[in-house]
Amino acid sequence: MSDASLTPRDTQWQIRLFGSLEIISSDGNTVSVAGKKTGELLAYLALNPNRSHSREKLVDLIWGDSEVGDARARLRQELSKIRMLPGVRGEDSQLLIVTRDECRLAPGTEVDSVQFQNLCRAAKQRAGVG
User: Percent of the chain having pLDDT more than 90?
Assistant: First the structure.
C-alpha cells in the first residue's frame, strides 16, 4: 500500500514537515516537539520513513562536531524526549522503533513531504515524464 492511499484508520501518526514541524496522533491531537535537536532528529527520520537508521549515522549527522561519547548520550536523551511526548507512550501508540543499534519511525506513520514526493512521482509516471 502506498503512502498516498493511507486512510486515517491505517495511520497511527502523522508528521507534518511543511511549515513548522507538527506531530498529529491518531486521535487528532497535535503533539508539540520542543528542542531544535529533537526536531532535527524527528525530521530526518520522517524524511526517510521506511528504513532503519544506525545510531552511529544519526550521531554523526546531528552531532558530528561533538565528542562521540557525548553525542551518543545526546542521541539517547533526544530519543527519550520523543518517546515521552504526550500520546507517544505505550506499545499501541508507538511513534519510534528503537533498538540497541538502530532507529526508525513506526510503520504506517504518514509524512506529508513523503506523500507529496509520491504524488509527484505518480503524476510524472502518468504524464510519461522522467
Answer: 58
Q: Please identify which residue in the block is written with the cell numbers 554523526.
A: 60
4 contacts 115 by C-beta, under 8 angstroms = yes
What whole-number distance in Å separates Cα of residue 36 and Cα of residue 93?
23
- Burial class from Cβ neighbours inside 10 Å (0-12, 13-18, 19+) for residue 90 reads exposed
Distance, in Å, from the CA atom of 71 to the CA atom of 59, rounded to the nearest integer, reads: 6
Residue 125 cell numbers, joined:
509516471
Contact predicate 88/31, CB 8 Å:
yes
> Could you tell me if 83 and 57 are in contact, meaning their C-beta atoms sit under 8 angstroms apart?
no
What is the biggest distance separating any 2 CA atoms in the chain, rounded to whole angstroms?
50
> Which cell is 79 given?
530519543
For 27-47, what is each residue's pLDDT tens digit?
888 988 888 999 999 999 999
Q: How confident is the model at residue 7 (pLDDT cuts 50, 70, 90)?
A: very low
Quick one: CA dihedral 104, 108, 110, 115, positive or negative? Answer: positive
